[in-house]
Please model this.
Amino acid sequence: MAEVQLLSFWSSPYVMTVEVALALKGVQYEKVPQDLSDKSELLLKSNPVHKAVPVLLHNGNCVCESSIIVQYVDETWPAPKGSADLLPADAYGKAMARFWADYANKKVKDALTGILKSCKRSEEEKKAAEEHMLSVMGMLDSALGEMGGAGPFFGGASMGFVDVILIPLLPSLPAVEGLAGVQVPLVQRFPRLEAWFAACQAHHVASLLPSSASISEYVSRVHLPRLSP
Amino acid sequence: MAEVQLLSFWSSPYVMTVEVALALKGVQYEKVPQDLSDKSELLLKSNPVHKAVPVLLHNGNCVCESSIIVQYVDETWPAPKGSADLLPADAYGKAMARFWADYANKKVKDALTGILKSCKRSEEEKKAAEEHMLSVMGMLDSALGEMGGAGPFFGGASMGFVDVILIPLLPSLPAVEGLAGVQVPLVQRFPRLEAWFAACQAHHVASLLPSSASISEYVSRVHLPRLSP
Model:
């Protein structure tokens, strides 16, 4: 058995976050894909509270919840030579990173789901969902300016906590835009976020993410039919 | 101006959490009470995203969100002589504390609100709200056994992160029980949690909490009329 195992599911944004964090810290691990429609004994035993992926297994410890796993990874393994830890060293930098990671976790998924749901609704509700998405993106764009300094990442010159929380947007945002027939005007409205997307796409960890086309197919087959109109 | 200020509101459980954390770390601070029906420039400027208390002001930094403030406090000030930090030193201990703090934040308030709401509903819904509360309390009771060792706190012999997140239960649980006419059978069902309540009541930080009677009066006057039946 590998020293580090990750209970995973290919389309989970929370799993993507943890995979990217592990890659940035140079941690070798074995991916253990889970069938979420028929949960394994291993998953139920290692995350009895939420019964969800990702779960990191390390030294007999089970660590659950992506944000908590990322911090565990950051506190357990040193950064590879020439790279930085995911969280800043100072308490205020840590607080800022935690604040925006929490904001991203709470707001971005809701905003994306809102856009998907609004497909089936009135023009007014579509407009409201788009406006909400724009306000969330605007907040993130400001945070990127405040935290990232000269950028291009929230972590500055290298990816940090907020970057790994947000990186599932790379496949998810184009997928949702395509399915809903809307487009978030990144270039015109949020040039810093636009540059962030470009820098993430160019980073070697982008190869760990599923394609936008596969997410689009999965969401339209599995999630869209379940969304209440 | 004091070196540390806390934008506060007397009945906020999140403010109670931060006040207890500051007291445990021996940090002197000035409380700056806020009028939440007419938010001050200072509050809007220091927490533009959520516009909510608590906010900790320290060295020109604004730190928001109670869980994040508690970690900032723990990472900024050393524990007073003879006492321990709020989070354990090891990465897995930290992950466990963060997991249960997050669980408490997400589930306990919802369970209490569920009980309050169920007052106005059918016997079946009342029963369901009570069962949900019991399942949350059961999870916390197990976590206390797992994390707290010989106890009496989640932090072991002294209060830690999960304890300060949960301590607003001291006034809130009896208030909600009284208003809803139910009683969580702590003594029979959750002896570890019962001992936790007793140890918290006996701790000097309990004097920082408002009385159960004042919370009860406030909830019945301000929150109950707003709850949809």
